Amino acid sequence: MDLNRSALRRTVDMFAALGLFLLGFLYFGADYRAREQDYHFYQKYLGSAVSIYCTGSPDVRDYLISIKVVRERLDLAAVDCAALAASPRLAKSMFNGWHDSHVVFSTLTGHMWRWWGLSWQALWPMIGMVAGLTFLALYAAARSFGLPWYWAVAGIPILIPWSGIADSVPFFRDFSKVPFILAAFALCGVFFRAQNGLRARLAASAGIAVIVAIGVGFRQDVVVILPVALAAMALAEPPLASRAPRLTAAATMALTLGVYVAMTIAMAGLKTTEPLKYEGMPHFMVQGFADEFWEAAGLPLRGLSFVALYTDFLPWAFVDANDARVIDYVLSYDPAYRESAVALWFRWAALAPADMLVRILTALSAIAHMFWHVKWPVLWLALLLLLAAVGGWRRATFVGATMAILVAVGTLQFGARHVLHLIFLDRVLLAAIAVGLVPALLSLWRRRPAPDWKPPAIAVALLTVTIASTVAVATQLQSRGLADFSARLEALPWVPTEAEHRQRAPEAREAWLRLEVDPAMCPGGRFSIKADAEGLSRSYTADGAGGRRFVYLAVTDPAIVPVSFTVESESCVVARHWGPLGDGSLAPVQFFDPRAALAGNRLLDHLARAVGALF
Asked: In angstroms, what is the C-alpha Rg of the chain?
């Protein structure tokens, strides 16, 4: 009887997995063929894939620069492979950099063109494959964490967020990470079933490493799932037959890291021979300080703006203004860009450490309220505490750690397209909780022993103390950072006109603009200034609560991107002064009102936002 049940379970799983994969593969493959013009995945950067199609090598040649871009796509109909092969290789190319940071995606694209012809429609199998693997990974994750096959099959309409996937697949570059993150997460479930022995755990460990390494070749932020997987191995349920669970955990973690490193080294053979490597992550992290992302996470800053707008060139202007050197754009391979961008990120983080910590909680709240079935983080916390109380503390800790890790990394540049994997994961997280919670509750109901609330109570106390003390320390650091920044700004050698500033420093491309404002003189008692750049605008205000004060604006290099500032209430401005910027001594910020920023940095306010994010 047990053999028959096991065979039935395997058969159902096989047909369910195959059916879901084929559904995603065929539907979205056909959708791509029918609506290729509606799909956007940086097709104009796939020059190395064209080179692979023509020559077998990803190294870009001079001919590719002449190919026109039509509808944000390389004009494949105009490609002449003979002319491309005859042209010299480029020593440095944006195409090479894009290929090396999307090495599997770009290589697969080139070979698919070799197999099925040079056209954008020929990529439909890759689109369908990624969508199908997403469907498959969601089902596999639910089963891996112990959801019975009959509930998993019956729950397919709930497990598969069809509309969300359908809306996301056309943005294929961002979506392509999703199946790899979900598949690696699915294998994490192996570690929370005691019947899985060492062999199964080692296989899962190696599988996670392979999946993550391949996924990074599509989208580099797939690596975010690696610490989640290591947490699963550290918190794993001890195998039934194991006498050394800690050794088992250490072995699985070491195997995962070893296989991942080996895969990364092996896949380096797919990259170009470009000696300089494109470093996009520092640029991405600087962009993450844009006002748009703070607001999307539900935590707009007060009295401080790092970057007004989410663009490509405005962050470059700030990276350039952060350093005494003239820094070229990130796609130019200038090594100074990475150095200055990393330094700028840490400088900015030092001005808002408390806000950055609280943003993790508010971002989780934003995701839950906008996308998840369980809308309130406090309910997630209650479910995890209940699971811990009935004996599932390992599983509860892992689910909580998964949410914390994925949200924390997601807040580096918080937006829906950067956390698609987390948006689609809530159903699986609920299944993982339910599988551990429901049987335990039924067992308690039959035997009627009281749940052991001591472990979750201790956990809540430790979590509360840890968060509160961390935020308290961060608040003090933020106050010191803001006060020091304000004092250093005041100490700059200010002059009353831009002409004097330019005369004093003829080579200066940047400057600080200091406005002495009196909001009481403004209509309505509120000072307002608008920043315009690249066709976008953002307004900043200062109310009368702080009285007469200085506010500061960074005027970046107009050759990179011209930014204009329009004072909407000139009667408020008592005086203007200009000061030096760009020598590397002070981090540039878009707008800074020291009094408002310091007044908004109160521990009770931060804790209130953190508590409010739970509801």
From this structure: 27
pLDDT number for residue 369: 93
Scan for tokens 């197999």, then name that residue: 115
From CA 607, how far away is CA 354, in angstroms rounded? 10
Task: Choose among 480, 462, 323, 314: nearest CA to 400.
Answer: 462
All residues at 6 or more sequence positions from 610 whose CB lies less than 8 Å from its CB, including other chains: 358, 361, 467, 471
Report residues of the chain scoring pLDDT below 70. 1-3, 275-278, 448-452, 544-546
308 with 551: CB under 8 angstroms?
Answer: no
Would you call 372 exposed, middle or buried from its count of C-beta atoms within 10 A (0-12, 13-18, 19+)?
Answer: buried
Contact predicate 260/213, CB 8 Å: yes
Q: How far apart are CA 270 and CA 273, in angstroms?
A: 9
Q: Give the pLDDT of residue 390.
A: 83
Spatial distance between the Cα atoms of 347 and 481, rounded to a whole number of angstroms: 9
**C-alpha to C-alpha distance for 295 and 442, rounded to whole angstroms:** 43
pLDDT digits (tens, 9 = 90+) for 297-313: 999 999 999 999 898 89
CA 614 to chain centre: 21
Closest CA to 556 of 319, 383, 382: 319
Single pTM value for the model: 0.91
Who's near 483: CB < 8 A, 6+ residues apart?
594, 598
Q: What is the mean pLDDT of the chain?
A: 91
What pLDDT does residue 87 have? Answer: 92
Asked if residue 571 lies in contact with residue 274, where contact means CB atoms within 8 angstroms, the answer is: no
Q: Are the beta carbons of 224 and 181 closer than 8 angstroms?
A: yes
According to the model, what pLDDT value does residue 65 have? 86
E strands, 461-593, are 510-517, 526-533, 536-543, 549-555, 564-567, 573-581, 591-592
Q: State the angle between helix axes of 454-490 and 393-410 in degrees (0 to 180), rounded to the nearest 10.
A: 20
Residue 338 corresponds to which tokens in the numbers above?
A: 């990475």
* Sign of the alpha-carbon torsion through 557, 561, 562, 567: negative
pLDDT at 276: 65
pLDDT in tens, 562-603: 888 888 878 889 999 999 998 889 999 999 999 999 999 999
